[in-house]
Amino acid sequence: MTEKNQCEIFCYDEPKVNRLKESINHEQIRNTTKILKALADETRFKIAYALSQEGELCVCDVSQIIGSSMATASHHLRLLKNLGLAKYRKDGRLVFYSLDDEHVIQLIQTAYEHALEGKAQEYK
To answer: pLDDT means per 10 residues in the chain (124 residues)?
Structure first.
């Protein structure tokens, strides 16, 4: 018996499928997946969301927001930086992080707004 969310027969649009298969850049897909995996972590998404709202936060601020040590906050921020999602600047003895560009800010805000719509279900 076929599930209701599956096709009942096997039939595909060969030209469309071939065109899409050729257009997919596998390296870009891998890099995008790394970004989404990083943001799938609740703590890192919380940090990214806070940065999208405030613009710039020091590591001390982030540690208080996520309820962790500064070392843990730094670890998460460094991962976001290494993936090109965040950048930092040093001011004396303080390090301030911000999101890298407008694309990242839009990604965070769009995901958050979509979840507010109540369409996101718990993954089981």
So the answer is: 77 92 93 93 97 96 97 97 96 96 94 86 64
- pTM for the complete prediction? 0.83
Please give the backbone phi and psi of residue 95, each rounded to the nearest 5 degrees, phi first.
-120, 125
Q: Which domains does the chain have, with CATH numbers?
A: 44-116 (1.10.10.10)
The alpha carbons of the chain give a radius of gyration, in whole angstroms, of 19
The separation between the first and the last C-alpha atoms of the chain, rounded to the nearest angstrom, is 23
Separation CA 80–CA 42 (nearest Å): 13
Give 89's contacts (C-beta < 8 A, 6+ positions apart): 95, 96, 98
